[in-house]
Design a protein that fits this description.
eleven-stranded antiparallel sheet, alpha+beta, Glutaredoxin
Length: 489
């Protein structure tokens, strides 16, 4: 399964011969090839917004987006670009309680072929430590090798996802740059024929592709998601950005950028096996010291931010802290059939932190620190459904048999007060209930019920989707093994 960059990366530009030249109207075939002189950097700025609305649950978030693409010449025999994406929460919205607007950073080094396809390097800078951050690569777009004429339609495949269908629709000028306007759509089969067992989504994208250099001047993307058996949209993502500047750095100024990219790359490669294996604090401390030594040299390069984020991740792991809440607004375009598509949530990894308001059993909001040093069963259910009552009765039994060693928290999806009251009354189970609507992305809740079992360090032990005899037995056995193991703090 591709990473969440699958829909952000509708990458690269094209042609198999010549440089980008345009003559005459676009009723003729125009061949475009991405021109990537070493040291050329394109800077884009824009916004990302998301909205969720279902029943009485509603939230919206907004982010500032800045992304850079730097041509770094050939690596491993391929033309390559370094793509730095920074996503910052907008301060004019209401920040989560006790938090300040944060920033996530993603750095990727990608090869780009003669058709403009972006090809991820075997090891990305930040493959493990920055993999959860949004990576925006839509400034490159793959087009057919024979060139484009007005009205042409072509498809680009994506592993594990529906194909993207593109169409050249118009010639327009953006920022005094002649562009080819290209519209694309990617849609699941369930969008037109809703099913009760899986959600559906649609992606609509418009790219204004520079005719002279084969790099986008402007990108707009809209993602829509529907819940199972629904024909109304419950989630929307809007991504808009435009070229802010482009400049080719001479070798004397390019050096700082290249050095920071290489440092972040090498540091990430060294950190990856340690973070995956939950290395001892001593090993992480050695790597942290190395990170401090290589970052002593002053730098004004924006790519230093990537290395700083890798360092913060190493330091957090050394201290045994949870990963910071992920502010990326994209993930739900992945199919719900694979646990690997769960992004940050995966067995054997620390669970992503969150901030969710109490609906019952408390006031204000809660995060994972409320259950510090306690094994925790997170129960995502939709109150009002028959299966929700069955799940809570089983959780009540597990908690009682544990003698209170197991903590349980219910995270309600589509939380309606009357359904929550009925659920607690019918089960006689006194348990904290939070609004889980905002966790649908970070915990990959595509359908309910979903149970997530965490150990006392809040590392994910197991993920259980659906409800039946097998899933109940599986979850019960995991709980028993967890409580018997008594991991050291």
């Amino acid at each position: 399964m591709e990473s969440l960059a699958c829909w952000l990366t509708m990458a690269g530009l094209v042609s198999c011969q010549g440089s980008a030249t345009v003559s005459g109207p676009l009723d003729r075939i125009v061949r475009i090839r991405p021109e990537l002189p070493v040291g050329m950097e394109w800077l884009y700025r824009g916004t990302v917004s998301e909205n969720y609305q279902s029943g009485q649950a509603e939230y919206s978030r907004a982010y500032r987006l800045e992304t850079r693409a730097l041509a770094i010449g050939e690596r491993q025999g391929r033309r390559s670009v370094a793509i730095l994406t920074q996503l910052r929460e907008r301060e004019n919205g209401r920040p989560p309680m006790g938090q300040v607007p944060g920033t996530t950073v993603s750095l990727q080094v990608c090869g780009i072929d003669d058709l403009g396809r972006l090809q991820d390097s075997s090891t990305e800078a930040g493959h493990s430590v920055m993999a959860n951050a949004m990576s925006e690569r839509g400034m490159f777009l793959e087009v057919p090798p024979g060139g484009i004429s007005m009205g042409d339609i072509w498809e680009t495949p994506e592993k594990g996802l529906p194909v993207v269908r593109w169409r050249a629709t118009a010639r327009e000028t953006v920022q005094a740059i002649p562009c080819l306007k290209i519209e694309g759509e990617q849609v699941t089969a369930e969008w037109h024929l809703p099913r009760a067992d899986r959600p559906s989504w649609r992606r609509s994208e418009t790219v204004w592709l520079g005719l002279r250099n084969g790099v986008a001047v402007k990108v707009e993307r809209r993602m829509e998601r529907r819940e199972p058996a629904r024909d109304t949209t419950t989630e929307t993502r809007l991504v808009r950005y435009e070229l802010d500047s482009s400049i080719q750095y001479p070798s004397s100024l390019l050096g700082d950028r290249m050095r920071d990219i290489d440092l972040a790359w090498n540091l990430s490669r060294a950190a990856e096996p340690l973070l995956k294996g939950r290395a001892a604090p001593e090993a992480l401390a050695v790597l942290l010291k190395k990170a401090d030594s290589v970052s002593e040299s002053p730098s004004t390069s924006p790519y230093r931010a990537a290395m700083s984020q890798v360092r913060r991740s190493i330091d957090s792991a050394r201290k045994g802290e949870l990963p910071p809440p992920d502010i990326k607004p994209v993930a739900w375009n992945q199919p719900a059939v694979s646990q690997q598509a769960a992004g940050a949530l995966a067995a054997g990894r620390p669970a992503p932190d969150f901030l969710a308001p109490f609906l019952r059993g408390g006031t204000g909001s809660a995060n994972l620190s409320v259950w510090k040093d306690q094994p925790l069963l997170m129960v995502f259910v939709q109150p009002g459904t028959p299966v929700a009552e069955q799940v809570l009765l089983a959780c009540k039994e597990w908690k009682a048999s544990s003698g209170g060693a197991l903590s349980v928290v219910v995270l309600a999806i589509k939380p309606e007060a009357r359904n929550i009251d009925r659920l607690t009354r019918d089960t006689s189970f006194i348990v904290p209930i939070l609004d889980g609507s905002g966790l649908r992305i970070s915990y990959a809740v595509e359908s309910t019920p979903r149970l997530v079992l965490l150990d006392s360090r809040h590392q994910c032990v197991g993920i259980f989707d659906g409800w039946g005899v097998e899933s109940r037995i599986d979850c019960s056995s995991h709980i028993n093994r967890l409580l018997k193991s008594k991991p050291t703090q």
